[in-house]
Amino acid sequence: MTEHSLSLVRSGTRYSAAPIKVKSRPLDTLDPARWAKRLVAFQPRVETIGEMCALAQEHIAGLATEAVVRRVVEANPHSLWGYAHKSAFDPENPRAEGFTAILLLTEQGLRALAERTLDCSDPDPALLAKPGERPAGIYFWATFAPGTLAPGVTLLFDKFKDAPFDGVTVYTRVSTPDGRRFTEAVGFRQGPVIDGAEAPHLHYYERKPKPAATPLYDSYGQGRECKSLSVSVAREFSDLLRVTSIRGAVYIGEQQCPFEEEFDGNDLMAAHLIGYAGDEPVACIRVRFFADFAKMERLAVRKEYRNTRISFMVVKAAIELCRIKGYQRIYGHAQRRLLDFWSRFGAKPFEGGKSFVFSDFDYVEVLIEAEPHPNAIRLGTDPFVIIRPEGRWHVPGILERSSSRPATRPSIGYV
């Protein structure tokens, strides 16, 4: 059920039942910034589904009804993506010029697809993966991307590069000559074998699983070896007790800082990172966020662990946390005796910065100019990513699983 243009890859080969030899440019190797630089891919509003179906009715035979598409999308918002030219796209009133509809299939659903028992005109919800669940297969249900919208498919592949979709094989069923030529030109092959069943009616695109890339600020796991160093964001009350213990030992115990000066009223308004040696909390740092900069402060390392690299890990993790939250300017007050340490992270005293004294130590204002993070969280990021636990934006959260339940609004009508 696909309709493609040949603006991305062209072939003069005529359509036939036999495989078509075209020059392949696999989708995973195409840079969206180059091929789709004038396009945007977005999750459309449910109320615009009728408009999107109307776009393709004349081009795709057997297109599912608006009611069916709406039901699939409401069950899993990742099932529908719109394409539009940037020049015509209004974020306040997004309207699609083309689209790709997707069925995120469970193992049972993928077998049904291979055996031709999957009713694509009205798919059984039991065969579809729930939000946050890793699908067994991604089926391109319908794609309508005429003319210069065709490269928008590269944007879609880019959005599906992370968990829970990374490495999941993509399947499609070609129904037009142009769709077949385009599909094979971007790396799809005909005839997958699914759970022992041959499926010559399908094309498939194998994707390599993305190597696990746990961010440094979420590298802690219980039960690690006693000498293993890691970092975690503080998320629970017990984590704040760990932070308090470390800072109490270092600043109050060693540096004789008065209690009210160390615990200054900002701890509940900040993010804290904890460094671990095995399961033992041994270091911490605090980060506060302002309009256009973040401030790192209160770095503390227990003295018996200062000959390790935990201080470097904690600072690097804090910088990475700031970057993923969209900050590029990271400000701090560095003790003058520790300027060399902070310079290793790019911190420099800046022009117009002040030197000053508090809690019996002399400080210098410093600034780190960080590179923008490629996956920084901003307006337009998947809303389910934004509501994940702090520092766990790379892992599907519990609220994504809850979205599979209908909106019953149980508290309405009760006091």
Which value, in Å, is the CA radius of gyration? 26 Å
Structural class label: alpha+beta
**What can be said about the biggest beta sheet?**
8 strands, mixed
Helix count equals 12
Provide a descriptive summary of the structure in words.
The chain folds into two domains: 2-205, Gcn5-related N-acetyltransferase (GNAT) (Aminopeptidase); 229-369, Aminopeptidase (3-Layer(aba) Sandwich), CATH 3.40.630.30. Strands 1, 2, 3, 4, 5, 6, 7 and 10 form an eight-stranded mixed β-sheet that branches. Strands 11, 12, 13, 14, 15, 16, 17 and 18 form an eight-stranded mixed β-sheet that branches. A two-stranded antiparallel ribbon has the order 8-9. It is built from twelve helices and 18 strands. By secondary structure, the protein is an alpha+beta fold. It starts with a strand and ends in a 13-residue tail after the last helix. The chain has helices at residues 32-35, 49-56, 66-75, 107-114, 152-159, 177-185, 237-254, 259-262, 310-324, 339-343, 383-386, 398-402; strands at residues 2-4, 39-42, 80-85, 98-105, 137-145, 170-172, 189-190, 193-194, 197-198, 203-205, 229-233, 271-277, 280-289, 294-301, 329-335, 348-349, 355-358, 361-369. A hairpin with a 2-residue loop joins strand 17 and strand 18 (361-369). Helix content is 24%, strand content 23%.
Q: What does this entry show, briefly?
A:
The protein is of the alpha+beta class and 415 residues long. Helices cover 24% and strands 23% of the residues.
List the helices and strands and how they pair.
Layout (H helix, E strand, L loop, with lengths): L1 E3 L27 H4 L3 E4 L6 H8 L9 H10 L4 E6 L12 E8 L1 H8 L22 E9 L6 H8 L10 E3 L4 H9 L3 E2 L2 E2 L2 E2 L4 E3 L23 E5 L3 H18 L4 H4 L8 E7 L2 E10 L4 E8 L8 H15 L4 E7 L3 H5 L4 E2 L5 E4 L2 E9 L13 H4 L11 H5 L13
Parallel strand pairs: 1-5, 5-6, 14-15
Antiparallel strand pairs: 2-3, 3-4, 4-5, 6-10, 7-10, 8-9, 11-12, 12-13, 13-14, 15-18, 16-18, 17-18
